[in-house]
Amino acid sequence: QKIIVVGAGILGASTAYQLSKRGAEVIIVDRKHKGQATDAAAGIICPWLSQRRNQAWYKLAKEGARFYPSLIAELEQSGETSTGYARVGALSIHKDTDKLQALEKRALTRKEDAPELGDVTMLSSEETKALFPPLDEDYAAVHVTGAARVDGRALRDALLRAAQKNGAVLLYEEATLVHNGTRVTGVRAGSETITADSVIVCAGAWANEIFQPLGVQFQVTFQKGQIVHLDYPDANTGNWPVVIPPNDQYLLAFDQQKMVVGATHENDVAGFDTRVTPGGLHEVFTKALDIAPRLADSTFVEARVGFRPFTPGFLPVLGPLPGWEGIFVANGLGASGLTMGPYVGYQMAKLALGLDMDIQLEHYAVSGAIVAECE
Ligand code: FAD
């Protein structure tokens, strides 16, 4: 089977890798848009503490987290050791003991069908600070040992390299769909027209545009996120847990003194605005320093910007494009795409190859993201 994957974020990279592993002839086409979500993402893999009740969403997030260890082991065996993935645990911090108790309860309930979340322990403020020294004194925490962090950029590249080792071809071009009647026959990429048995569109925030030539009005919206990378001097940060505060921010430590703090959640941006703004930085720094005052003296390294792709109802859409043949769509991973992306890519590869899937596609129908079809 010859399959084209449009988009090389975490979703496209994973899909391409899984397809190539199963012997498909794979061509990946990526436009390298500035603002790719995967390239800017923080990297928290900890779905179990979420208050979101939607079961279809939780299924992808939970299975996504569970999928990671075997994927990382497999990549390591094929020589891809640099993914930034580490099961460092998470600290969900709070100043209010009642809130922490409610969190602990939720984690323990979720553990019943997700034992991979590991041990759940209530930590005093001293114990919390011992695990993440820059934190303010007043925070206690619920510690979840199975949580992880991953470097989205590094994992994406490891998957793309592994796919290429299996014979996949990666082109950095803009892809335009080519069709004959209601069958998509391939893409136009740069000056080349490439035909294939099917095309899988993993185009994130930019997907609306690619469906226009088909008369299909796709409905992905996006949320801009600005996120900051710091260098935290003289500390062995590699094993520090992820910190999830009560506000909408987070702190992650990586190897080599790297600290990632953020992010903004900007809904009302005009177009694909990839600027780093004083307002965005101010918000990130104010919230981060409030939680971890000792970061004040770290070194600013860079700020990144990414667009989280959302489909209606904040629920991902996966499956065939209704009314069309030879085309599949996966989109809307929102704020949890690093968690879900590798697993969803695995499912998309199975779908395109006609293999049995482990999810019920009707929960993620692509029709949910289509406004109306023109003749
Ligand atoms: P993207 O990564 O955006 O990739 C889409 C790709 O498609 C792009 O490379 C683009 O160039 C390409 N493309 C589009 N149209 C075309 C075309 N016509 N031709 C060729 N190529 C095309 N998730 C977590 O699980 N944990 C986190 O801690 C986390 N933190 C985040 C923090 C921030 C600041 C942001 C922005 C996101 C975060 N996320 C997190 C969410 C996660 O990053 C996204 O859900 C995920 O990366 C989406 O992946 P994707 O492959 O669908 O899209």
Structure, described:
The strands form six sheets. A six-stranded mixed sheet has the order 8-2-1-12-20-19, covered by helices on one side. A four-stranded mixed sheet has the order 5-6-4-15, sandwiched between helices. Strands 16-17-14-18 form a four-stranded antiparallel sheet. The model has no long low-confidence stretch (mean pLDDT 96). The protein has 375 residues and is of the alpha/beta class. The chain has nine helices and 21 strands. The protein starts with a strand and ends with a strand. Helix 1 runs parallel beside helix 6 (152-165), helix 1 runs parallel beside helix 9 (337-352) and helix 3 (55-77) crosses helix 9 (337-352). The chain folds into two domains: 2-39 and 153-220 and 312-373, FAD/NAD(P)-binding domain; 87-148 and 222-310, D-Amino Acid Oxidase, Chain A, domain 2 (2-Layer Sandwich). The protein has helices spanning 10-21, 37-40, 55-77, 97-111, 125-131, 152-165, 207-211, 278-291, 337-352; strands at 2-6, 25-29, 44-45, 90-94, 120-123, 140-144, 148-149, 169-171, 175-180, 183-189, 192-195, 198-201, 216-218, 221-231, 242-244, 250-253, 258-262, 299-310, 317-320, 327-331, 370-373. The protein is globular, with a radius of gyration of 21 Å. Bound molecules: flavin-adenine dinucleotide. Residues 6-12, 29-33, 36-38, 40-44, 152, 174-175, 202-206, 210, 225, 227, 262-263, 306, 308-309, 333-339, 341 line the site of flavin-adenine dinucleotide.
